[in-house]
Amino acid sequence: MNKKKTVLVAGGAGFIGTHTTVELVEAGYDVVIADNLSNSDRSGVEGVEKILGRKMAFEIVDCCNEKELEEKVFSKYEFDSVIHFAGFKAVGESVSEPLKYYSNNFMSLITIMGLMKKYNVQNLVFSSSATVYGQPDTLPATEATPRQKANSPYGYTKQVCEDMIEGMVAANPSMHAIALRYFNPIGAHPSALIGELPRGVPNNLVPFITQTAAGVRECLSVFGDDYDTPDGSALRDYIDIVDLARAHVAAVSRMVDGKNKESYEIFNVGTGKGVSVLELVHLFEEVNNLKLNYKIVGRRPGDVEKIWASTDLANAELGWKATRPLGETLKAAWAWEKHVRGIK
Ligand code: UD1
């Protein structure tokens, strides 16, 4: 393996990790996947292997466990870059179990950065979130838009992790990092061999929609139609998972090729377009030629009214742009759900 061309994907068995692994390998990188399968399973890695037609280096390891991560990964493989997806991400759960989020999301980053320093691994891509912006005063949200007080422990971990990385990179001149602030990642690989596998009742909109269409859930609740938006439902920036995965390839390549302008950089990853919940529901029905059972209910506590990304910086600096039309993304999400449920 060529060290410069090998990437450790921590949390590589999950939704974003599997899609990113596929795009990295297709772009010529080798990948080592590390995952403890706490919120994913082997089928994600198997799907990646089917798409790529090759076996992946895959270690089952808890990224909070320094000894294990060193033995099974850092001392065993040579790589120059790490993409860190090994975090918990359920906003509601983080409110009821904050310590679970603090301990996992902080410790995994601390452990990974400590081993990066020890093994002189230079480049880190971190999965951050648009949640760091809260409800911005002006839209679109740019990378310079001030972060607001986090409205969940999950959001707080993203803010603190960004700051921890900034401090670590400032103290270690050979280290470089890019934080990608994702807007709302949705969809699935066009092969329908990998996708999102939420455990239990989905919190996020698109998995809830596809499970309702599949008959697993009876009815989608649309949270609020009294927002100050054209149709009253909340606006988000839905980014296709394959486009999002490619942003990670662009971030790794920027650092591997020495093109980064600062040792720590932040980029929004979105489409630049706000789409309402009702628009999304109706587009899903249209492109998949089905009717969705939904009802309007009250607002969900903690939700922001509207947010979408400015993508100018990512376009200019990463040379990255979202390309997949939303209708195609919603078709892929439905194809994946059908694959999971065995629906023809
Ligand atoms: C949330 C988090 C984000 C996190 C992402 C993925 C916040 C502010 N955002 O995004 O940081 O990265 O989850 O875990 O904490 N909706 C319905 N019915 C449903 C589900 C959702 O109407 O059954 C609506 C929501 O009210 C919202 C939109 O759909 O307006 C998107 O919701 P969701 O998919 O949960 O994502 P966010 O809350 O935007």
In a nutshell, what does this entry contain?
The chain has helices spanning 15-26, 42-52, 66-74, 91-96, 98-118, 153-171, 205-213, 241-256, 277-288, 312-318, 326-341; strands at residues 6-10, 30-35, 57-60, 81-84, 123-129, 176-182, 184-186, 220-223, 235-236, 238-240, 264-269, 275-276, 294-297. It is an alpha/beta fold and 344 residues long. The strands form four sheets. The protein has a seven-stranded parallel sheet, sandwiched between helices. A two-stranded parallel sheet has the order 7-10. A two-stranded parallel sheet has the order 8-13.
Write up this protein.
With 344 residues, the protein is α/β, with parallel strands linked by helices. It has a domain at 3-186 and 238-269: NAD(P)-binding Rossmann-like Domain (Rossmann fold, 3-Layer(aba) Sandwich), CATH 3.40.50. It is built from 11 helices and 13 strands. It has helices spanning 15-26, 42-52, 66-74, 91-96, 98-118, 153-171, 205-213, 241-256, 277-288, 312-318, 326-341; strands at residues 6-10, 30-35, 57-60, 81-84, 123-129, 176-182, 184-186, 220-223, 235-236, 238-240, 264-269, 275-276, 294-297. The strands form 4 sheets. The protein has a 7-stranded parallel sheet with strand order 3-2-1-4-5-6-11, sandwiched between helices. Helix 1 (15-26) links the parallel strand 1 (6-10) and strand 2 (30-35). Helix 9 crosses helix 11. The longest helix has 21 residues, at 98-118. The protein is globular and about 55 Å long. The N and C termini lie far apart (41 Å). Bound molecules: uridine-diphosphate-N-acetylglucosamine. Uridine-diphosphate-N-acetylglucosamine is lined by residues 89, 91, 129, 131, 152, 155, 184, 203-205, 208, 220-223, 234, 236, 277, 300, 303-304.
